[in-house]
Amino acid sequence: MNFQQLRSVRETVRCGFNLTEVAAALHTSQPGISRQIRELEDELGIEIFARAGKRLTGLTPPGEAVLTIVERLLLDAANLKRAGAEFSAQTSGPLSIATTHTQARYALPAVVRDFRQLYPQVTLNLHQGTPKQVAEMLLSGEADIGVATEALAHYEQLVALPCYRWTHSVVVPPGHELLQHDGPLTLQRLACHPIITYDVGYTGRRHIDEAFARVGLTPSVVLTAMDADVIKTYVELGMGVGIVASIAFDADRDRGLCALDARDLFEVNLTRLAVRRGTWLRGYVYAFIEAFAPTLTRAVVERALNGEPIEG
To answer: Angle at the Cα of 87 (from 81 to 90), degrees rounded to 5?
Structure first.
C-alpha cells in the first residue's frame, strides 16, 4: 500500500470516475491509475469500485468505507507535513483563502494588508467563488481558510466559526423617490420599484426573499449579480433600486448613490470563517484568523477543532 494508490482512489471519486481526468490531475497515465487501483484492491481483497466492463461506475459498499479511511490517511499525511513545516519555518509558507466577492472586496483588504506587514514571507493566494465553491475548495484542500455568509455551516466536514454580523442597505441615485418620503422605509414602498440585488445563495439573498414573502409581497427583481459593484453600477444607470450589504457602500467612494438603512427590513446576516475539520493549522494561519475576527483566538479555534461548541 502506498500514497499514490490512495491518491488514485480519492481523485477517481472527485473526478466522477473518469480515469482520463484522474490521470491528468495526478500527472500520470490512465493505465497507471488503473494499475494503482487494482493493486490496492488486490492487497485489500475487495473491489473498491463497481465496474461496467473496463469503465468505473461508482463505489462498492466496501469502497464507501475505504474512501473514508483513504481521506483520513491523506489528511493525516498532509498534517504531518504541515506540522514539520510549523517548526522548520514558522513565519513563512503559503496561505490559501477562499471567499466570495463581497468579503474579498470589502471585508478582507485591511486584514490582508496588516497580515502581510506581520508575515511578509507568507504567500497569500486569494480564490473567489460562490459560497458552495468556497466550501468545496476547503473540502478538497485547495484552500486553508474559507470566508462566506452562506453555506459554510451546512457541511459536517467543516468547522464554521462566527465572525461578524452585518445588515443590508438600499442604494438609490440622488433625488430618488424613496429619499423624498419622511417616514421609515418599508417593504411595501420598496416593492413598488424594480429591484437589483444579489444572486440566490449570495450575501444574504435568502433573508431578502424571506422578508418579502412574510408580508405577502413578490418584488420585481430585474437584475441579479454576485458583485455589489455591478449592482451599484446598474442602480446608477437608473435601472432599479439596489439592495446590497451595508459594508459594500462607502459615501466617499459611491458619490453617485445614496444609501438607506435597511436593518429593520431584513434579518441580520452572519459571516463565518471555516476550516476543514481535522486539519493541522500552522501558527500564521491562526494569526490570520484572529486578525480577521479578533474573538477567534488560537485557543478558541483549537477548542472548536476539538469539537467544543463555540457561541456566535
So the answer is: 100
- Topology (CATH level 3) of domain 3-84: Arc Repressor Mutant, subunit A (1.10.10)
Whole-number Å distance between alpha carbons of 111 and 11: 34
Q: How far is CA 129 from CA 9, 43, 87, in A?
A: 27, 40, 32
C-beta separation of 157 from 165 below 8 A: no
> What nine digits make up the cell of 232?
451599484
pLDDT tier for residue 266 given thresholds of 50, 70 and 90:
very high
Domain regions of the chain by residue span: 3-84, 89-165+272-305, 168-267
Question: Which of 62-71, 123-132, 190-199 is predicted least confidently?
Answer: 62-71
CATH topology of domain 168-267: D-Maltodextrin-Binding Protein; domain 2 (3.40.190)
**Class of the domain covering 89-165+272-305:** alpha beta
Question: Rounded mean pLDDT of 117-139?
Answer: 93
Predicted structure pTM score = 0.70
Do the two domains 89-165+272-305 and 168-267 of this chain adopt the same fold? yes
CB-neighbour burial class of residue 255 (10 A; exposed 0-12, middle 13-18, buried 19+): exposed
Place 192 in a pLDDT band, splitting at 50, 70 and 90. Answer: very high
Hey, is 59 helix, strand or coil? strand
Query: Is pLDDT larger for residue 128 or for residue 41?
Result: 128
